[in-house]
Amino acid sequence: MSEDKNRDQLRRYFLMGKIPFALDESTYHRFSERNTVFSRVGWDTSYRAFRRGISDREAELVGRKGYSRFGFAASPASWMVHDYFLREFSQEEAESLQSTGFTQVSSNLPRYESGDLNLNSDRVKRLAQIFGACDVGIVNIDPKQHFIYTHNRKGKRINLPNGIKHAIVLLIQMDYSALMTSPKLPASITVGNAYSRAAFAVGCMAEAIRNLGYQAIPSVNSMGPSVPLAVLAGLGEFGRNGLLIHPKFGQSVRIAKVFTDLPLNADSPINFGAVNFCRVCRKCAKSCPSQSISDGEPTWESPWNTPSNNNGVYKWYVNADTCYDFWVRNATDCSNCVRVCPFTKPPGAVHDGVRFFIRNLRFLNRFWVKLDDFLGYGKSKDPDDFWKSEIYLNQEMKR
Ligand code: SF4
Ligand code: SF4
């Protein structure tokens, strides 16, 4: 089959929902974590945000609405568990972790032996819930390791240890009312909080698996791009803004994973109409303050010339350079594209009903987008309300 025909078939299958994404083997190459913007700010002198951090403008913005002194204290603090424990207890730091005893196996029992893959899978999913995940899936690592980085952000080659066959993918829920204040500081606090809880969850998961006598590498953003692994693990679909859309939690989740050789059953990808909804929705592209999200149909190549995009997948590309530029200007991160996404809503009978129609009656999608706008969903909420404990209590009681 010619390359064009192959691409065309993959593209059609993707848009019909027959495959979770379309990857062109002839042009796709594994990615290095050094090419993510978070790494490039440290080494890429050609990037205009070289050596610019999101705290650079704190002093300029503090005191403005949404940028309170408490916010600037809480936002970096929310990342503490993730950052303090050496990048989510990951392989990159394994040697120093072992020297501090963090990854020592703490069980004296012999290795756990069970051929019951269903039981093992169910137990690890329950463990993930206990440690804080709102949903969990399992994916087989493909032999070509498409979604494992070639190098970590220090430039060291990543070699998965022999025998690692699966990734357990965990979703950690973020706080809906905080997200609704994006791009102000309260939204950043729930993002950092979710990353810290993700680091805690995968750290505990990996320790439990090692205690069973198997290998386990915890990771949040390291080791490989999380979104494709989550899609393959049956946790959702790719959104226009490059993030996962979960059928229940929408985009109000962060993703983490544990790579392991514990024998497990993989889950299958799901399709609930999200990709086709994105084709008509475009709310994230319209609401992005830096116009970093593709507004048209998916493409095989990025429209932007940046090393932070990886061509060869038929998808909507996001300009990570201009996105991060906005974060620097904003003195904190941004979740506007998550805030406005019609899938980012608390669960409830009405929203579940709409999700049923999105899954089954595609021709109504434009109507749902218009209704979402009409009802004012996704509008930025007053960041001052986030700090009122009484309002928070009332919201919790309504859940
Ligand atoms: S995080 Fe903000 S700046 Fe970045 S793509 Fe989303 S909306 Fe745009
Ligand atoms: S805002 Fe709309 S287009 Fe963007 S990810 Fe959500 S559903 Fe897709």
Structure description:
- This protein is an alpha+beta fold.
- 42% of the residues lie in helices and 9% in strands.
- The protein contains 19 helices and 8 strands.
- It has helices at residues 3-15, 37-43, 58-61, 69-78, 80-84, 86-89, 94-100, 117-130, 176-179, 185-211, 226-232, 274-281, 283-287, 320-330, 336-340, 349-360, 365-374, 383-386, 389-398; strands at residues 22-23, 135-140, 166-173, 216-219, 237-238, 244-245, 253-260, 313-314.
- The chain has a 4-stranded antiparallel sheet, with helices on both faces.
- The longest helix is centred in the middle third of the chain and has 27 residues, at 185-211.
- The chain is globular, with a radius of gyration of 21 Å.
- The model has no long low-confidence stretch (mean pLDDT 91).
- The protein binds iron/sulfur cluster (SF4) (2 copies).
- Residues 239-241, 277-278, 281-284, 340-343 line the site of one iron/sulfur cluster.
List keywords for this structure.
399 residues, 4-stranded antiparallel β-sheet, 19 helices
| Helical/strand content category | alpha+beta
Secondary-structure element sequence?
Answer: HEHHHHHHHEEHHEHEEEHHEHHHHHH
Largest sheet: 4 strands, antiparallel
Which molecules are bound in this entry? iron/sulfur cluster
In terms of topology, how is this protein built?
Elements lengths: L2 H13 L6 E2 L13 H7 L14 H4 L7 H10 L1 H5 L1 H4 L4 H7 L16 H14 L4 E6 L25 E8 L2 H4 L5 H27 L4 E4 L6 H7 L4 E2 L5 E2 L7 E8 L13 H8 L1 H5 L25 E2 L5 H11 L5 H5 L8 H12 L4 H10 L8 H4 L2 H10 L1
Antiparallel strand pairs: 1-8, 2-3, 3-7, 4-7, 5-6
Helix pairs in contact: 4-10
One iron/sulfur cluster binds next to α14 and α15.
